[in-house]
Batch of 2 targets.
Target 1
Amino acid sequence: MEVFVISLLNGLVYGMLLFMLASGLTLIFSMMGVLNFAHASIYMLGAYFAYQISEWIGFFPALIVAPLLCGLIGAAIEVWGLRRVHHNGHIAELLFTFGLVFIIGRAVQMTWGMLPMAYRVPPLLDFPLFTLYGANFPAYRGFMLLVSALMLLGTWLLLKKTRVGLIIQASLTHPGMVGALGHNVPVVFTTVFAGGCLLAGLAGVIGGNYQTTEPGMADAMGPIVFVVVVFGGLGSLAGCFIASIIMGMIQTFAVVIDWSFADLVRPLGIAISGDTLLTEVLTVPVARIGALLPLVMMVAILAVRPRGLMGTRDT
């Protein structure tokens, strides 16, 4: 019971971090039809910006400044990059964002080096929030949950209760009509792309010291985020939230559960033994294949839902 409850809390924290990162991508993906491979790289930039700004003026100013910088970078990418290659179709946009992954990765390595950064939890939040089964739950993880919940509430209110959200949602399905009513649809697209990058940067600020700020962090989070976006449903903020929590739980429990298929059938009197390839596969602990679960789920989802992954962008 102790392992279950603690893993449940850790899975919730990780799932909310995934939601912070995936929510921006699902808006970009659904509205603009752009499969932004560089989204996780923006997340990495948010973490590095937060580390550098924290060194200068502290963590809490970095919590504001670093996401804004990521949003400005996202706006520049959309205006001077994606908008120029859009007329060549989705393949050109894919190649452009795929190239950005390497450009941003090399820029990070040239600026901050190859080693992990000493981006630590701020002292103000470095204390146990409560104790459960003799284990301390860090206050910073509670802070992550709070920021994630506020971001979810803020995004929902923006999209559902404001005129800006109405224009954004209308541009998703009827961009021509929105343009005919006098709204600048390209500016709306730029705003959405910049907003998605801002959310990715915010996730980087929050997650950079929760995990590790190093040049490979984008590669580690990228596949998981795309699984969340497709599994949750394009354009569905609620679906993105549910998918993020599910993926967070799956990955967390996969690490702590040391069972294999052979262990599950042993109480039934079935003993799996021998020196064959099938025996080796059936006796592999779940913890060893936990890192492969996002890839397996992505392949399965794409096999079931091969269509509708690219939206339309009639501008």
Target 2
Amino acid sequence: MKTVNLMVAGLVAMPMAAQAQTEISWWHAMTGANSEVVEKIAADFNASQSDYVVKPVFKGTYPETLNAGIAAFRAGQAPDIIQVFDVGTGVMMGAQGAIKPVAEVLTEAGFAFDKSQYLPGIVGYYSSPEGEMLSFPYNSSSPILYYNKDIFEKAGLDVDNPPKTWAEVWAAARQIKSSGAATCGYTSTWLTWIHTENFAAWNNVSWASNENGLAGTPELAVDGPLFVKHFQEIADLAKEGVFVYGGRTSEAKQNFTSGECGILTESSGGLGDIVKAGINYGIGQLPYDETAEGAPQNTTPGGASLWVMGGKSDEVYKGVGTFFNYLSQTDVQEFLHQESGYLPVTMAAYEATKASGFYETNPAREVPITQMMGKEPTENSKGVRAPNLPQIRDILNEEFEKMLAGQQTAQEALTAATTRGNAAIKEATGG
């Protein structure tokens, strides 16, 4: 009888113990190896304490995850944490009451929050104009230059000295083409992200008014003189057959990994596919325009961040704060950075990775970090915000494609894109 009573007592105690743990839902868009990193980080956090259980849930692609989050919020069933890609940052910033700033979550959970511990370029992108960090930068990347060392050698170029300015890129690309070392000198992924948004930040010129949209509804400024100069040079290269257009997102990476093109600008997150291709590649920083005053400034991150949804209990917020504090720990950030190829969030993780000798054997991993760390972000280089950014990117791509087909000049393309883009912003804001 005594044994039975003990068993009953034990069975009764079990659900009570389970209820003591607060569940934290985490919707994400990571696939493959990056999904495995998400699962391991959550499992390690869960094993590190007994108060909270983080439960990752894959919700599809970046746009699918954002749309699922919006629908869930409207239905009153939003997750506690949601991963949102950089293009959706403006959407989340404008969702008053739908989110709770991560700086607030950490502070209220009892953790001393010091944004100087985080990489400045990343913090600036995910902060309000007043400097409050709104979301946790989970996976960040930066555009860099890749070049084929074998093609460089055949073309008579210095394999140990990648081009640093756009003028040097154009010259090297023309030499590659004219020497017969490759059929294409230069290609690029993401013309919008790399050649407008990051071009603006890196060269410290305005992408749009109101601090590129961070301080209010923006009006595009991508028809400015430096943009026109840059895109006319790309259009001229395309006419000569020196520049080859691959597509609107990351398609051009194939033009590089196949050996067709000698130079590529692409996300640092594309490194894995380039390594897998087995080509003899080198890495350089994102080129800048030597005529731009103060360039290079700093690049802005791509990738995604973790947003905390509003309307949750104090206990859930304490759990989220505890989890984000765990994510900020140096060893966790080292693991995330080294396994996934994304940037470390904290300065401590960067310094620890550097001290370990990791960058000596993986030099490409440091370039995107130093691009964000060189200078304090300016009003032109904290990033871009627009209520209709995905549509604005589509508009820009449409006009670029007409330009590259020889149907219009760079000035005509950028003027049209600015007019159409501003109309899309007004439509989204009811203006």
